[in-house]
Amino acid sequence: MVVGDRIPEILGKDQNGNEIKSSDYRGKKLVLYSYPKANTSGCTAEACSLQEHKAQLAAEGYEIIGVSKDRAELQKKFADANGLEFPLIADTETTLLQELGCWGEKVACGRRTIGTLRTTYLVNEDGIIEKIFTPKEIKTKIHGQQVLEAIRK
User: Fold this and answer.
1) Does pTM top 0.85 for this prediction?
2) 67-70: Cβ within 8 A, 24+ apart
3) Four-way CATH pick for 10-152: 3.60.130.10, 3.40.30.10, 3.90.940.20, 3.40.47.10
4) Beta 29-34 vs 19-21: how paired, if at all?
5) 43 among known catalytic residues
6) For all residues of the chain together, what is the average pLDDT?
7) Tens digit of pLDDT for each residue in 62-112?
């Protein structure tokens, strides 16, 4: 997906088994972010940074949704262990990740693999993508701050 595209209607089921649809958020803005693996250092730092800035993001009209291919049980443990107060979609079939365009080839430690490309989408009240943070732009430890700065520009 690119800036100007509408996010899919069906986003998936979260860590609590709730179906999440983009229409549930009509009239609200979203920080929709994909991450490779729950409970890893980078993904934990990113999620905690977003959680730390949740109130400031809410004041700007944004809600947060995370997505990875982890099972719902792992997503729940991840959310509980880190006090995450937002939905984490368990996209085990990578349907949403592929639709968003954040599933593909990546290189880690010289090895080529297929997996989740860490990406963040800022979505407006109508479900339209307004900004995309690519994997190279995201600094996991301060990502919440990065998002706020982009919103306030």
Assistant:
1) yes
2) 67/11, 67/12, 67/32, 67/33, 67/34, 67/35, 67/91, 67/96, 67/97, 67/100, 68/34, 68/35, 68/36, 68/37, 68/38, 68/43, 68/97, 68/116, 69/94, 69/97, 69/115, 69/116, 70/37, 70/38
3) 3.40.30.10
4) unpaired
5) yes
6) 96
7) 999 999 999 999 999 999 999 999 999 999 999 999 999 999 998 877 889
C-beta neighbour count of 134 within 10 angstroms: 11
Q: What is the pLDDT of residue 109?
A: 78
Q: Which two tokens stand for residue 46?
A: 């990113």
